[in-house]
Design goal:
heterodimer, A: 253 residues, mainly alpha, 2 domains, globular, B: 81 residues, 0% strand, flat
Chain lengths: 253, 81
């Protein structure tokens, strides 16, 4: 069986290599004549990002504005993944024989104090990644992952109860929903101002201190990224809490 | 692309991929998988896709390794095949 799967893997690998080996089919890295570089859409993004939304990082403006619809459903996918894992492995029967008795374990002194110093830094960095995603790599997804990782770190070093005391299961699910609500709700707002769903440019009158449609798009992107971060951080934390405790939400690793 | 850097990453990447599959100790395999992710992240960063590299570093090398280790701790720690 192992030999057979080895042969199949090798064959598929060779097929893949053969598929990508033809230099005429695949443009070289950084080729200015590749279809991706010559298409009018890329040209539009490159030339109009600053004009449309004042966002220097093109990736962010494509992600959150030009393709905001796509990103909204990516966030929904993350949410659904979290809910699916919750539905599959959350169990409410406590004290079954199979449950590992939660050991009372004092966290290591050095570890504890290092993590105490680290966690504020990690969380501030995650906010920086979110806020500075318009000008540099980063954004809601990455910031959310880093924020979620800081909660996971608490659960790793102490135990799941300590983490759940600070950010409970209910709050995590609530935050995951709120993130989608922020994103979709902000998209819906623009419908009331006579534009398409997620067209933040028309929201200029209700955003304080904003006097151009480009700046309104800038702020709109920031708000939907906050929604993304909310969902991603809480879903990641929820998944870890479920996986590490077999869905019983008590005890540690 | 810098050829030498690519070659170096490839030299580490292939053993990491094979070791991650072959290791009987599943916690170790998860760690090696994290190393694999991190090397992929280096590759993305070097190709100029810094946003992708950032995501790969955060999700691939950071959180998914933790998930795998958490899952391994709840099942058996050694692979049976």
């Amino acid at each position: 069986m192992k030999l057979l799967s080895g042969i199949v893997c090798g064959f598929v690998g060779l097929l893949l290599l053969y598929g990508v080996s033809d230099p005429d089919d695949f443009p070289a890295w950084g080729d200015p004549n590749s279809p991706a570089s010559t298409s009018p859409i890329s040209e539009y993004f490159i030339q109009n990002t600053m004009k449309d939304s004042e966002v220097p990082n093109m990736v962010t403006s494509v992600l959150a504005d030009y393709r905001g619809w796509d990103t909204m459903f990516e966030t929904v996918v993350v949410f659904v993944a979290g809910i699916a894992i919750f539905a599959v492995i959350r169990s409410f029967d406590v004290d079954v024989g199979a449950v590992k008795k939660p050991k009372v374990r004092e966290a290591d002194l050095v570890l504890k104090h290092t993590v105490r110093l680290l966690i504020p830094v990690i969380q501030i960095f995650s906010l920086y990644v979110l806020g500075h995603g318009h000008g540099s790599p980063g954004g809601g997804f990455q910031g959310g992952v880093i924020l979620g990782a800081s909660f996971i770190l608490v659960a790793l070093v102490w135990d799941i109860e300590t983490a759940l005391k600070r950010f409970s299961e209910k709050q995590a699910i609530f935050c995951a929903g709120i993130g989608i609500f922020i994103y979709a709700g902000f998209g819906f707002l623009s419908i009331f101002f006579g534009a398409e769903f997620l067209n933040y440019g028309v929201l200029e009158p209700i955003l304080p201190g904003i006097h151009s449609s480009a700046k309104a798009r800038y702020i709109g992107m920031l708000i939907v990224e906050i929604g993304v971060m909310c969902t991603v951080a809480s879903v990641l934390y929820l998944i870890y809490a479920l996986l590490a405790t077999r869905g019983r939400m008590q005890g540690g690793l | 692309m810098i050829f030498e850097f690519d070659l170096l990453v490839l030299i580490f990447l292939l053993p990491a991929a094979i070791i991650a599959l072959q290791l009987k100790n599943l916690v170790g395999a998860s760690m090696v998988f994290g190393i694999y992710s991190f090397l992929m992240c280096l590759l993305w960063a070097e190709m100029g896709a810094v946003d992708v590299a950032f995501t790969e570093a955060a999700v691939g090398a950071g959180v998914s390794a933790v998930y795998m280790i958490a899952t391994v701790y709840q099942t058996s720690k050694r692979s049976s095949d």
